[in-house]
Amino acid sequence: MNIWWSSIFLVAYLSHALSKSFKCSVINEAGFCFLENVVINDPASSKTLDFPKQQILLIKSGSIPNFSKEIYAQLPGVRLLHMYNNTAIRKFLIAVSNLTEINLQRNGLIEFDVETTENRNLKTLTIVHNAINAIPKNIRYLEGLEKLFLYNNSLDYVDLELFTNATSLKVLSLYDNFIKTLDSKLGLRFSNLQTLSLSKNKLSFIPYFVEAFPALNAISLRKNPWNCRWLEFAMGHIEARSIQIARKDAVCRHRWVGDVCCYRTVVDFLFQAQGEELRNDREQLLKLAQENRDLKDVVGRLNESVRKLEERLVDNKADGEV
To answer: Where is the signal peptide (predicted)?
Structure first.
């Protein structure tokens, strides 16, 4: 009997010794539980972790090289998860959970992925001041997303079709990346998108701009090498719809369109030359058309004179016969 109780005591002791409990260093008035020195090197050992039961966790420091699905199982009551500054993360999986907001800032994060299961709980995803260079195709599973912040990363290409399942998306913030292409296609519509932030990228135009964002009321465009032709077209739509432009360009070495700088390229000059050629052709056609009308008038008058002359000759002949 004593051996039996000793075994139970030993198991309980070892379980306690092997488990790791994290406690809030501070709980502020907003209910944020601040955690420090959270180190999880092996996601498989997450079953031995004990996190606080608060709904809002803010991890200030530590190291979680691979934030995997196993860790979510230890956060059943958490709704908002923030990890920033000194919390090192290399890979991050967004798994289906009770989380409504994930906020990752300055973690050295280079890659994230999304579990291939419909996720309507997550409303706000913030991955900023990191080193993300691609948006995973599985982001289409975040169907409940309303706000997406991916600014200050290393993105150079964004396919807007990846966000079409997020039909409630209201805010898309992509500023301060290296985006050269914002890929779209005819028919894509983000009917609820109100704010689009694109400043400080490498964009020259946005395909199907008018059709894709019918509900837009705020946009940031500064510090991009916009094509002047496209910007003139876009600015006409922006002004007609009273869309607010945030943080306009301060200086411009090329040409202003409104308060945004644009750049003339070889394509612009080709368009301009072609436009001038078309205008000249049009003027020549208009001139020829006018000359043709004038000629028709002259011919008409001549025909009328001939008709009158013929009538007079007929009358004179009739008088001579009498």
So the answer is: 1-19
Interaxial angle between packed helices 266-321 and 228-240, expressed in degrees from 0 to 180 and rounded to the nearest 10: 80
Contact in structure between 125 and 142 (CB atoms under 8 Å):
yes
pLDDT value of position 11:
35
Number of Cβ within 10 Å of residue 63's Cβ equals 16
Give, for 16, the enclosing helix (H) or strand (E).
helix 2-18
CA distance 12 to 14: 6
Report DSSP state, residue 194.
-
Q: Report d(CA 71, CA 93) in Å as an integer.
A: 10
* 26 exposure class (CB count in 10 Å sphere: 0-12, 13-18, 19+): exposed
Residue among 91, 98, 143 nearest 117 (CA):
143
Rounded Cα distance between 114 and 211, Å, is 29
- Name the residue among 82, 27, 32, 86 with its Cα closest to residue 61: 86
- Listed range (9-13, 145-149, 193-197) with the worst mean pLDDT: 9-13
Q: Are 285 and 293 in contact (CB under 8 A)?
A: no
- Provide the 10 A C-beta neighbour count for residue 279: 10
Q: Is the dihedral of CA 34, 36, 42, 46 positive or negative?
A: negative
pLDDT digits (tens, 9 = 90+) for 253-303: 888 998 999 988 765 655 555 556 556 656 776 777 787 787 787 777 877
Q: How far apart are CA 109 and CA 93, in angstroms?
A: 11
Q: 273 in helix, strand or coil?
A: helix
CB 43 within 8 A of CB 66: yes
